[in-house]
Amino acid sequence: MNLVKTNSDNLDFKKLSALFDEYLVDIDGDEREFFAFYNNVVLENVLVIYENEQAVGCGGFKKYDDTTAEIKRMFVHPNHRNKGIARIILTELENWATEKGFTSYILETSPKLTSAVSLYQKTGYHLIPNYGQYVGVENSICMKKDS
């Protein structure tokens, strides 16, 4: 496996993000456009992971406040799940954010993405009240981890 630090202009990241958006259509339902608006942001800090030169997973982060990085666009292609790829991406994103001076990480996900929620909990994230645009959104849970 090969991990590449890049940004949201990366073509492989764009392809994986498009697959992620397709995957979320059924999950987000009527709120799809709401989530799409907040997910299609420019990210300066993106990781793409390759297996045999094929992009199989991605994730990114952006500044939320002076001490907090928001983890965004975590996705592993369905054909490559259950290999520990998501954990590798998440760990590397946290390390990168820490190098940039962040001391905590937040994220938003769907409660329907049970494997993602489980991964976040296993790696030290805990539920927090929904923040920002996610306040009052029923199909949304927010989590936080301090470094």
From TrEMBL:
<keyword id="KW-0808">Transferase</keyword>
<dbReference type="InterPro" id="IPR016181">
    <property type="entry name" value="Acyl_CoA_acyltransferase"/>
</dbReference>
<protein>
    <submittedName>
        <fullName>Ribosomal protein S18 acetylase RimI</fullName>
    </submittedName>
</protein>
<keyword id="KW-0689">Ribosomal protein</keyword>
<feature type="domain" description="N-acetyltransferase">
    <location>
        <begin position="1"/>
        <end position="147"/>
    </location>
</feature>
<dbReference type="GO" id="GO:0016747">
    <property type="term" value="F:acyltransferase activity, transferring groups other than amino-acyl groups"/>
</dbReference>
<keyword id="KW-0687">Ribonucleoprotein</keyword>
<keyword id="KW-0012">Acyltransferase</keyword>
<dbReference type="InterPro" id="IPR000182">
    <property type="entry name" value="GNAT_dom"/>
</dbReference>
<dbReference type="InterPro" id="IPR050832">
    <property type="entry name" value="Bact_Acetyltransf"/>
</dbReference>
<dbReference type="GO" id="GO:0005840">
    <property type="term" value="C:ribosome"/>
</dbReference>
<dbReference type="Pfam" id="PF00583">
    <property type="entry name" value="Acetyltransf_1"/>
</dbReference>
